[in-house]
Amino acid sequence: MEWEIFSEKIVGYSAEIEAGKLKILKKVVDKAYAVRVIENGRVGFSAGRDLEKTIESAKKVAKISEEVLKEFPVEKAAKVDGLYDARFENISSDYIKEEYEIVTSSIEKARIANALIAHEIVEVELRNSSGAELTEKGTFSFFSVETVFNGGSGFAQTQSRKIELDIEKTVTYAEELALKSAKAEKIDSGYYDLVLMPQAIHQLFSHTLYPSLSAENVARGRSRLHIGADLGNIRILDDPTLPYGFASYSFDDEGVMARRKVLVDGKVLCFYSDLKNAEKFGLTGNGLRISIDSPPVPMPSNLIIEVQERVDKSRALIIHNFLGAHTANSVSGDFSVETLNAEFEEKAIKGTMIYGNIFELLSKIQGYCSERVQIENTLTPAIRFRSVKII
Amino acid sequence: MFYDIREVDISSFTITLEDGAVEKPKIVNIKSKCFRVLKNGFWGVFIGDVKDDEGLREAERNVVARGDSEVERSTSRGKYEMKPKIPPWDVDVEEKIAMLKDLHKSLKVRSAKISYMENIKKFYYRDSDGSEVEYTVPRLGISIVAIEKGETLQFLSKRLMKVGGFEKLKEVFKLTEEINEILPKLVDARSPPAGEMNVLMDSKLAGVFIHEAFGHAAEADHVLQGSSILSGKIGETIAGKNVTIVDDPTIEEFGFFPFDDEGVKAERKILVENGILKSYLHSRETAKKLKGKPGNARSEGIDFPIVRMSNTFLMPGDYRFDELLELCRNGVYLIGSKGGETNPATGYFHFSAQYGYIIRNGEISEMIRDVGLMGYLEILNNIKIGRNLNFDPGFCGKASQTVPVADGSPEILCRAKVGGE
Question: Which among B210, B236, B220, B226 has a CA at the least distance from the CA of B349?
């Protein structure tokens, strides 16, 4: 029998702010195991807090499995800077109170409806019967805020592998959006040039583009894409080795070394893959778990979006956030989504939808119009697209 | 000082059939504890698998400030165990796999993922006021995602999810019948029209409409945060006289619970009666602050409970389907839901149908795909409501906490903005 034991220990602090007041301070200490076994070539999976019971459950479930895997890999961990900040070990309630003070002092006219500050240390261990013994300690900070003002609202978020969070800038951004949104007006339907700000890019691409670059989806005929498919003026890298990247790691959740790869350079060059699909798609180091209780599947790491030409934002509809991006069609790439914070020629816009298809949208890229920032696992500048249907 | 301790033990078994083969079957057993201490108006919380005295000490250590939180103090005691007719764990795994394989065989599509899930949630609650509550509730379900290619590559997903036992899955083959009928047409369906128009929704989509358009704005935490357009509107007319909306966790649909995650006995609540806003949904804290009734606090696992919906539904009206179709005259008939999202602060919401049809001169015409809709609360002022109430199961992901819910509604006719070409 081949086996793999993956464990995850989390120590985290989070603070919740409601109606501008610090309301909850929470500490989480958790450790759980995820076990995979290969018996007679069949893979079984189980997760739980008790290792012995979890191993037994994995063996039991392997008997009904028809998923085939020969063995678990032995690879080294990549050297990645900025995964761990030792200062998290001494985080105190005073530090979080100071962060809260920054939240409240950063806002002037609008009000904080709710906000979340979170800091987490995650310690991962992976051992398998092939001889792999890997460990990684990572740190994660996250801040999100929703602001309200006279019937308008704004949302913004930031994250970091370091203990410092850019709270002031994020609150200021959310406040600007709320103040503008309070005076929002309707605009006529028609075709407009669009500027999608980084938050909007992440929301739309996560639900329309990224699933089509999964090796599993390609293998099963659930993606429109193939090697060589033309995606226009865009370069997309998947890079888990990016220093200080929020989705960086030294090895994936199957023990495969993290690798930087160019997924798209005008045309599709490769897909992100797990171990199961590696024979066909290569070993890319993207076998990741949605949570400890899920087996690894192909998932992207840091996705770095690069667009060549610098352009301005003039006479474009600028969209900061979407409402309902998750309802877009992850298979066809079609979307019909609502703008949450949008503006046109300095005036906020409300009640607007955009309709289209992600692959057609990519062919309309005109250039980038801001510095690149990281929103969850997407690193992107604001991007300008020509002539998109607005309803 | 107030404190409470929650212990949640969830055991689950999942089988996934990928293109006919059993892949990634899994057994998961997760037991967790959450300790909350409310002192000086501030919540200190600790989540970890430790003894009660240690957990409470850790939680109290997190009381680091003064706040204005207070809770409705009430003592609940009770035990509940849902005993299904056919307990899922008594059914042989071979029988479950055979059912999934039969479902796969009955599908006529390019690719399909079929998932079976069963779990048992054991819940234990006690608090400083002497409450002691425990319950056991099983849930199970089957979801199917089918992919087909024609002019476009499309998917159609269908699911049947319930509380209770294996007997609740007897109509599961209706899911594949609908997929086989619709998906081959959907791949060649046209884009929807764009703009504000008459929209006739089937009960599944209409249920999500009620959840998004009204339900989230009625959650009292949004009211206290100043981010709900229903703030200060109790007793006011916020919808047409034909609109009555209820949230009822005691109905055995997917959002069922006997006690909420603050140990309060579940109760049916009329939120809107004949168009008048009667109540918000409340946790112990929002109930204290807004003089409401608690019982609607829920959490994912053992996270901090927040105000949530359960089984939320629009009461039936008088219209037959053919009457709604005739009244619609020209517009779209939209079916099934791909989910939605709302911004309670502005009242704007967005949701998407799985597919639909053009309605021309009161008759159902060609099929349309990828239909997104937007609207705002005022739409409820003028809707026409059908006769047949149906529930659709799903998961609501407010504040990154996913909980099972069911949305119910008859067919409804309204005006809304459709995104299309």
Answer: B210
